[in-house]
Amino acid sequence: MKKRSITLFINGEECNITVQAHHTLVHVLRNQLNMTDVKHCCGRGECGACTVLVDDDKAPGGRKAVDACMVLAAMMDGKRITTVGGLEEDGKLHPVQQAFIDEGAVQCGFCTGGMIMKSVSILEKNPKAKEDEIRSELEGNICRCTGYVKIVDAVKKAGSWSTKR
Amino acid sequence: MSNSRILPEFELLVPQSVSEAVDMAAQYGDKAAVLAGGTDLLIMLQKGSATSEYVIAMGEIEGLDYIKYGKADGLRIGALTTITRMVDNNTVKKNYPALWQACKQHSAPQIRNIATTLGNVMRASPSGDCSCALLALGAAVMLESKNGRREVPMDDFFINYGKTARKVDEIAVEIVIPPVQNGVVSSFMRMTRTNFDLSKVNVAVQLDLSGKTCNEARIAVGAVAPTTIRIKKAEALLKGVKINDALLEKIASVVSKEIKPIDDVRSTAEYRRDVSAVLVRRAIKACL
Predict the structure, then answer these.
(1) Chain B residue with minimal CA distance to A28?
(2) Are B121 and B130 in contact (CB under 8 A)?
(3) Which pLDDT does position A163 carry in this prediction?
(4) Which residue of A94, B64, B175, B198 sits 20 to 30 Å from the alpha carbon of B78, by its own alpha carbon?
(5) Is B43 at the interface with chain A, CB within 8 A?
(6) B11-57: which CATH number, 3.30.43.10, 3.40.1260.10, 1.20.1420.30, 3.50.50.60?
(7) B7 has a pLDDT exceeding 50
(8) Disruptive mutation site among B85, B110, B116, B196 for chain A (greatest number of A CBs within 10 Å)
(9) Does domain B67-177 correspond to CATH entry 3.30.465.10?
(10) Do the two domains B11-57 and B184-287 of this chain adopt the same fold?
């Protein structure tokens, strides 16, 4: 098939669309669904800017972080997908988003969406993740403003909030 | 179109079972590429280093995501088992440290969540970390076609750069690793600029230390030839002897002579010669 009709559950909303077989998930999210909160950067799984969370029943929290440029949209039929735009609940930012603001972990902002999504998955796996673990888990996310110290601080802060609750 | 982020068009085939996939492989032959995780294939299609009219995407086949261990059968890893699953698996960690280390140091978390262990082998890149560890562990690849299944030892699997023993009508379904024996130990090491990079050199070693001397040794080195290779001259030096520093020096110099590295974007031949010798020495020491 050159095209496939699929159902995605994006940020909790059911979405029935027909996608081109050769289009990646990031391409469909941005160009068909106008979800520009997901950034399309290197296109080859090196920078992490397009990171989203996808169903994985064996992963902690039931979802895993993937590069949306490295999967075909047509193979995502039936999957739940969370983007940075879908993290807030009832108008309240996700703790990781709030921590990024509080720590000033944003410079140009292009990597931020992907950084936040990967950080959410780190803390879902281990809310007490220490600096070493956070840094090695963030290896697939590149910040060319090089604001890594504040990013790591923000993840630690969000982790400390979630373990207190 | 090279270097575009948009893939060239292809016809997508989505088999729901291995037998369907095998039928498709038989029908489309070399016009089809097989996609498991896709983290290599999508990039190759983008760059134009691979072209394909058809893509057989394995992702919806049930029952190919498994890691099974039995004392008689050894370890069996399904075609859709991601590298993350390997890192999270305690049997792999305990019984096959070389493979576990290779998986742990492989690429980056988001890629490990998509990429498969078997896919790393099928890519037949000389720098494949899983390939290197699996060669040292004496693993085999299970291929399935309409004629049934055949198991190809890793020793015979890599034909050339990017080329494996898989025939176009076959689908790789499983990795098989012999069961662990008492006293058999393994280790893996690699050299990169940052952890995320592909290996400049990688090394995996398996030693049978069940007796007073080393009974058997397998040494695999990657990114120093068109395929991952074994250094059989160095293995022979280890057989039936006690390992000491003088022997390790001798082995290191044999390794440097036996490999055929090249200069490329990641490193130079000169550097690879020096570093592979050091890594082999360290990997053997790590087993002791």
Answers:
(1) B6
(2) yes
(3) 74
(4) B198
(5) yes
(6) 3.30.43.10
(7) yes
(8) B110
(9) yes
(10) no
Distance from CA of B256 to the nearest CA of A (A): 31
pTM, whole model, 2 decimals? 0.96
Residues in Cβ contact with B12 at an 8 Å cutoff, skipping those fewer than 6 apart: A1, A2, A4, A21, A22, A72, A74, B54, B55, B57
Q: Cβ of B67 under 8 Å from any chain A Cβ?
A: no
CATH architecture, domain defined by A3-86: Roll (3.10)
CB B38 within 8 A of CB A72: yes
Task: Enumerate the CATH 3.10.20.30 domain ranges in chain A, comma separated.
Answer: 3-86
Beta partners for B185?
B207
pLDDT (tens digit, 9 = 90+) per residue, B136-170?
Answer: 999 999 999 999 999 999 999 999 999 999 999 99
B7 touches chain A (CB under 8 A): yes
Contacts of residue B27, Cβ cutoff 8 Å, sequence gap at least 6: none
Question: What is the ipTM for the molecules in this complex?
Answer: 0.96
Q: Which residues are CB-neighbours of B67 under 8 A, at least 6 positions away?
A: B75, B76, B77, B78, B81, B85, B86, B89, B91, B92
Neighbours of B225 (CB within 10 A): 17
Question: Which pair of structure tokens corresponds to residue B153?
Answer: 């030892």
How near does any CA of chain B get to the CA of A23, in Å?
7
Summarised one tens digit per residue, pLDDT across range B127-140 is 999 999 999 999 99
CA of B222 to nearest chain A CA: how many angstroms apart? 22
